[in-house]
From TrEMBL, chain A:
Record-linked SUPFAM superfamilies: MetI-like
TM region positions: 16-38, 74-94, 106-129, 141-165, 193-211, 253-275
Domain ABC transmembrane type-1: 68-272
Listed InterPro entries: MetI-like (IPR000515), MetI-like_sf (IPR035906), Sulph_transpt2 (IPR005667)
Subcellular location: Membrane
Alphabetical list of CDD domains matching this protein: TM_PBP2 (cd06261)
Lipid bilayer topology: Multi-pass membrane protein
Keyword Transmembrane: yes
Organism: Nocardioides imazamoxiresistens
Keywords, sorted A to Z: Membrane, Sulfate transport, Transmembrane, Transmembrane helix, Transport
Subunit structure: The complex is composed of two ATP-binding proteins (CysA), two transmembrane proteins (CysT and CysW) and a solute-binding protein (CysP).
Keyword Transmembrane helix: yes
Described purpose of this protein according to its UniProt entry: Part of the ABC transporter complex CysAWTP (TC 3.A.1.6.1) involved in sulfate/thiosulfate import. Probably responsible for the translocation of the substrate across the membrane.
Protein name per its UniProtKB record: Sulfate ABC transporter permease subunit
Automatic annotation (TrEMBL), chain B:
Protein name per UniProt: Sulfate transport system permease protein CysT
PANTHER family the record matches: SULFATE TRANSPORT SYSTEM PERMEASE PROTEIN, SULFATE TRANSPORT SYSTEM PERMEASE PROTEIN CYST
CDD domains registered for this protein in UniProt: TM_PBP2
Topology class, membrane: Multi-pass membrane protein
Stretches for region Disordered: 1-20
Originating organism: Nocardioides imazamoxiresistens
Gene for this chain: cysT
From TrEMBL, chain C:
Pfam families for this protein: ABC_tran, TOBE_3
Alphabetical UniProt keywords: ATP-binding, Cell membrane, Membrane, Nucleotide-binding, Sulfate transport, Translocase, Transport
Protein name as it appears in the record: Sulfate ABC transporter ATP-binding protein
Residue ranges occupied by any ABC transporter domain in the UniProt entry: 3-233
Domain of life of the organism encoding this protein: Bacteria
Annotated organism of origin: Nocardioides imazamoxiresistens
Record InterPro entries: AAA+_ATPase, ABC_SmlMolc_Importer, ABC_transporter-like_ATP-bd, ABC_transporter-like_CS, Mo/tungstate-bd_C_term_dom, P-loop_NTPase, Sulph_transpt1, TOBE-like
GO MF annotation terms: ATP binding
Length: 282, 283, 340
């Protein structure tokens, strides 16, 4: 951290004005609106009951349960796929030199800058059983991608693809290869080096990447909306549930599920905020 | 989008790497690369090329056809205009927020740090819902911006909040306090120090954050569906337009709009990068 | 011979790191690879360890051809400059690593780790993490780790390079004593001539990818094969177009046969020794003064001060290496020099 003693000492009216302006801005834009979700999730309104009991009842509704189950299933597959892919591609990008390595490292980041709607469109154009490039072929072997769970998994894996790579690559670069070489000279083979040396060294980065991937997977909306039929009990994930129920004037249910999603994000945020410093201290 | 639009963090200083032979791919690592590339192609490359091919196979006339539709043109103009405005506001406000977080010290500052990250963490549809709670029909303060361009502006401000803050903050932290002290000892006023010493070194970070914010704003979808109203020709943004095309099975038009979005965001990112280099050289 | 290197060549792009290098490392001795940075000595060590592959040539360890063997099958211990500690493992786990890979029985591993930690004086730190150790302790841990697998050769790459001067000196003495106890064939890389002279039984001088000379510290210091070796090991000065050690010059205050006449330009006292700078007659003030070192008592007995006229000649039996062209400044690399 830079030495800010001198600047800190000079606390003029400008500093105070800026401070107040920033606090007010963030309060109006973020803090107040977010806090209202808690309020809406628990407070009675119109014909709807309030309180924790009613809140839990809404979450226990079969449609909500189905939505959460589907979201968790999809996220699980996406996280597994992205973890394996992320660790593998990071190792290849950092530890090996091959033709097209740079291009690949740019391409891997690409999904983060593509609009979720475009992701959905792309998957439809490639895999829709009616218009997609490969959809017909897959359909003929009895495999439907769009409007079914595989499509949801693809969409979710697509949008969260770079998150593990982005965490692991810098750490791999930083730890260098000396410890791995030392392990080799002590008789460890490739597999032993990976499991005993490399993996433990990138452990925290990987945890961080997986948490980010999970949070992103649970919360994806745009891409999922397009590849899912999106109807109740038919491909309706938690985020689609929030959307549909809000649109159908069932606000209490929408807010109840949204509340759970907010809590999940806050937990993810807490993990990344508190895990990170620990990893850096080690 | 949620927890995750990671902002480029400054890389930790690296130990100088030893001069070593490049590791070439062996049979095992080569096979691994093959498998991973196959998955990457199936998941990302093939679908994206489908978009590009679908958008371009109709040739120039399809482009003209799609863009000359009044609603599509309106959607594109609205999106780009709002995104530019939001990026601009972020460039200023984000820098100020970063400044306050680094240089000021007060109770509750750590809480602000968390508040900044919330827009990244929340699923986009929830972000929309959150904003509608305060600025929607049942607003406790009587402000209802649903279905207006202000609503779109607000939602975009919300989801792009962290970009500039989180790119500028680390640079500001690393700024050498001694340089400012040296400038002060040479007689420079606070304003001069800010303009001549601090801002020039922040410009690359501000630009990077602003282009990220712009790219995000131009492609935003989830947080807008509840607040924008989505009336064609008025409050319908490009991504919603794409969705409507898809729902009507007009895939070619959808692909064209998607392609234009990709082009614009690439263009702006490159332009801002060039601009920041120019400024950095002059600074 | 424990290690035989024959005709090894290695280049990185245009840069030739090793050019047809052949060397034999004797069994049970402590050998130093000495040379300036970028001279190829670390590359040679890494090729012996199998961490780098040579472009051509052969490496034999303990009579078996190791050229194509991967590092894990060469049975060498390697110690890195920056320790290469396994940061997530305790000190004892680090030391046990090689043994566990070899699936030795638990009791044996435990006994052996204990022995080694005792040997490197780290027994009370067994449960700590490497991050809780000082640099010197970490390097001792790395040594114990390398020794644990009973390697046929122990290779150390600038082992003390990352440590501060005092610790470096301590560890140097300690390594010498350790080697006298363990007797494993040891090769270490260093760019510090003092370190090499003090610790090694034998020194291999490497420069610009070639071996300049191999010999005992005495040989190298007293009988350098060429001006590079002479300049790299110890101080040199130029007297009458020859490189001479500053303490090998006789100073007389009376004219002598064959002596170079000059005047004292500067007198510098450095601790117990006195360093005088003599400007030969007719020479310009261009930094080419002859440097002579002597004891304080001797300088005083001659009554040397600035302006004194003196006659310089090499001591009997002193090593002289002729120079052509630019004179050499101590420690610098001669540009145009003729080898003896």
């Amino acid at each position: 951290m830079a030495d800010t003693r001198l600047i800190r000492r000079r606390r003029g009216p400008v500093t105070l004005v800026l401070r107040v302006a920033v606090v007010v801005y963030l309060f109006l834009l973020v803090a107040w609106p977010v806090s209202l979700v808690f309020d809406r999730a628990f407070r009675a309104s119109g014909p709807h009951e309030g309180g924790v009991g009613a809140f839990l009842e809404r979450l226990g509704d079969p449609a909500a349960v189905y939505a959460f189950n589907l979201t968790l299933t999809v996220a699980l597959y996406a996280v597994i796929a992205n973890t394996v892919f992320g660790v593998g591609i990071s190792l290849l990008l950092v530890r090996y030199r091959f033709v097209g390595r740079r291009v690949l490292s740019v391409l891997v980041d690409l999904p983060l800058s593509v609009s979720p709607v475009v992701v959905g469109l792309a998957l439809v154009l490639a895999y829709s059983s009616t218009t997609g490039w490969l959809g017909g072929t897959l359909q003929s072997v009895g495999f439907q991608v769009i409007f079914s769970t595989p499509g949801l998994v693809l969409a979710t894996a697509f949008v969260s693809l770079p998150l593990v790579v982005r965490e692991v690559v810098p750490v791999l670069e930083e730890i260098g290869t000396e410890a791995e070489q030392a392990a080799r000279s002590l008789g460890a083979n490739g597999r032993q080096v990976f499991w005993r040396i490399t993996l433990p060294s990138i452990k925290w980065a990987l945890v961080y990447g997986v948490v980010l991937t999970t949070a992103r997977s649970l919360g994806e909306f745009g891409a999922v909306k397009i590849v899912s039929s999106g109807a109740e009990f038919r491909g309706e994930t938690a985020t689609l549930f929030v959307h549909n129920h809000y649109q159908n004037f069932d606000e209490p249910a929408a807010y109840a599920v949204a509340m759970v999603l907010v809590l999940v994000s806050v937990v993810a945020l807490a993990v990344v905020t508190y895990v990170r410093p620990r990893e850096e201290r080690a | 989008m949620s927890a995750t639009d990671t902002v480029a963090r400054p890389k930790p200083p690296r130990q100088p790497r030893q001069l070593r032979a490049a590791d070439r791919l062996g049979p095992a690592s080569g096979l691994g690369l093959g498998v991973l590339l196959l998955w990457f192609s199936v998941l990302v490359l093939l679908p994206l090329s489908a978009v590009v091919v679908t958008a371009t196979e109709g040739g120039w006339s399809t482009f003209v056809d799609v863009v000359s539709q009044r609603d599509t043109r309106a959607a594109l103009l609205l999106t780009v205009g709002e995104a530019l405005l939001v990026a601009l506001v972020n460039a200023v406000v984000g820098t100020v927020i970063a400044w306050v977080l680094v240089r000021d010290d007060f109770r509750g500052k750590r809480l602000l740090e968390i508040v900044i990250d919330i827009p990244f963490a929340l699923p986009t549809i929830v972000a929309g819902l959150v904003l509608v709670s305060l600025y929607g029909p049942r607003s406790p303060i009587g402000v209802d911006v649903v279905g207006t361009r202000t609503g779109i502006f607000l939602a975009l401000l919300f989801v792009t909040l962290p970009f500039v803050v989180r790119t500028v903050q680390p640079v500001l932290e690393e700024l050498d306090g001694e340089v400012e002290e040296a400038a002060a000892s040479l007689g420079a006023s606070q304003a001069t120090i800010l303009r001549r010493i601090i801002l020039p070194s922040l410009v690359p970070a501000i630009t990077a954050g602003t282009s990220l914010a712009f790219a995000r704003a131009i492609s935003e979808f989830g947080s807008l569906v509840l607040i924008a109203g989505n009336r064609a020709g008025e409050t319908e943004v490009a991504s919603v337009r794409i969705l409507k095309f898809i729902e009507r099975d007009q895939f070619e038009s959808a692909a064209v709009v998607a392609f234009i979005l990709l082009l614009v965001s690439a263009l702006v990112i490159v332009a801002l990068d060039l601009l920041s280099r120019k400024v950095a050289v002059r600074g | 011979m424990s290690i035989e290197v024959r005709g090894v060549t290695k280049s990185y792009g245009d840069f030739v790191a090793l050019d047809d290098v052949s060397v034999s490392i004797p069994t049970g001795r402590l050998t130093a690879l000495l040379g300036p940075s970028g001279g190829g000595k670390s590359t040679l060590l890494r090729i012996i360890a199998g961490l780098e592959t040579a472009d051509g040539g052969q490496v034999e360890i303990e009579g078996t051809d190791a050229t194509a063997l991967p590092p894990q099958r060469r049975n060498v211990g390697f110690v890195f400059q920056h320790y290469a500690a396994f940061k997530h493992m305790s000190v004892e786990k680090n030391v046990a690593f090689g043994l566990e890979i070899r699936k030795r029985p638990k009791a044996e591993v435990k006994r052996r780790v204990h022995e080694l930690l005792e040997l490197v004086h780290l027994e009370q730190f067994a449960k700590r993490l490497p991050s809780q150790l000082s640099g010197g302790q970490r390097q001792r841990m790395a040594l114990a780790r390398a020794l644990a697998v009973e390697p046929s050769v122990l290779l150390l790459d600038e082992p003390f390079g990352a440590l501060d001067a005092k610790v470096r000196k301590e560890l140097r003495d300690w390594l010498r004593r350790l080697h006298d106890e363990v007797h494993v064939t040891t090769v270490f890389v260093t760019h510090d001539q003092e370190e090499a002279l003090e610790v090694a039984d034998e020194i291999v001088v490497i420069n610009q990818g070639r071996i300049e000379q191999i010999g005992s510290p005495e040989d190298l210091y007293d009988e350098p094969a060429n001006d590079f070796v002479m300049g790299f090991l110890g101080e040199v000065t130029t007297l009458d177009h020859h490189l001479v050690r500053p303490h090998d010059i006789q100073v007389r205050t009376t004219p002598a046969d064959g002596g170079v006449a000059g005047t004292v330009a500067r007198v510098l006292r450095v601790g117990f020794e006195v360093r005088i700078f003599v400007r030969p007659e007719g020479a310009a003030d261009d930094g080419t003064d002859v440097v002579v070192t002597m004891t304080r008592t001797f300088a005083r007995s001659l009554g040397l001060e600035v302006g004194t006229r003196v006659w310089l000649s090499p001591e009997q039996g002193a090593r002289r290496v002729p120079v052509v062209g630019a004179p050499t400044v101590p420690g610098d690399q001669p540009v145009d020099a003729v080898k003896v």
